[in-house]
Design a protein that fits this description.
The protein is mainly alpha-helical. The protein has 9 helices and no strands.
């Protein structure tokens, strides 16, 4: 299958190319050719694509190895940067727009709720960036010593999707009529998109990253 055929089938997969730093244009090359060009297994690339494109897809991580871990971590880190640098600021501007139509008390409640949620996301991502991902990268290089293992990292891995539904409900149900439908819809599109992206991100970590790491841990007798 050619890359252009994949994108034609589901243009939402462009975000995966962006996060893997795959450069356009790519002409008529196949998925296999593109993966060889970027020294990445086609199994990993297609597994991530299927997780985003197919709601009921269950990945079989047995086809992956420790060699796939650096690419997987790079993809997850790039997702973090995309949210922090692009998505969260864009949603913040949308919140600012709708707050202009609210009275002071309503504005303070929504602003505090959103700011608290942003802080929660940043703490979650910071934990992954400073604790979990460096461990995975050390494991892939064979440098792991006496430290906690992946199962313990996943136990401390909080779910950051729930509270975003509360923000969605506030915007849908409780903002005054002076806040236009277009303002609400523009903001809600970004919020729904972030919620879905966070959910997929969590699945990639729990269904692909963690199983591959745990297999490598057992292989090394850790």
């Amino acid at each position: 299958m050619k890359i252009i055929e994949l994108i034609d089938a589901d243009y939402g997969l462009l975000s995966i190319l962006l996060r893997l730093d795959i450069q356009l244009p790519f002409g008529d090359i196949s998925i296999g050719e593109m993966c060889r060009r970027y020294d990445m297994s086609s199994a990993l690339f297609l597994m991530i694509c299927r997780m985003y494109a197919c709601p009921d897809y269950e990945p079989d991580s047995a086809s992956l190895t420790a060699a796939d871990l650096p690419h997987l971590v790079r993809y997850l880190r790039s997702s973090h940067r995309y949210w922090l640098d692009t998505v969260i600021p864009r949603i913040g501007r949308g919140v600012d727009d709708v707050l202009q139509s609210c009275d002071r008390m309503q504005a303070e409640v929504l602003r505090k709720f959103y700011n608290d949620y942003c802080d929660e996301i940043r703490r979650h991502l910071q934990y992954e960036e400073t604790e979990m991902f460096p461990y995975v990268e050390r494991l892939a290089r064979g440098e792991v010593g006496a430290e906690i293992r992946m199962a313990e990292y996943m136990e401390n891995h909080t779910d950051i999707c729930d509270k975003i539904d509360d923000i969605k409900s506030i915007i849908l149900k409780y903002l005054p009529e002076s806040c236009t439908t277009r303002q609400r819809c523009d903001l809600l599109f970004d919020i729904f998109s972030l919620r879905d992206d966070l959910a997929k991100h969590t699945l990639v970590e729990s269904k692909i990253l963690a199983p591959v790491v745990m297999v490598e841990e057992r292989r090394r007798g850790l």
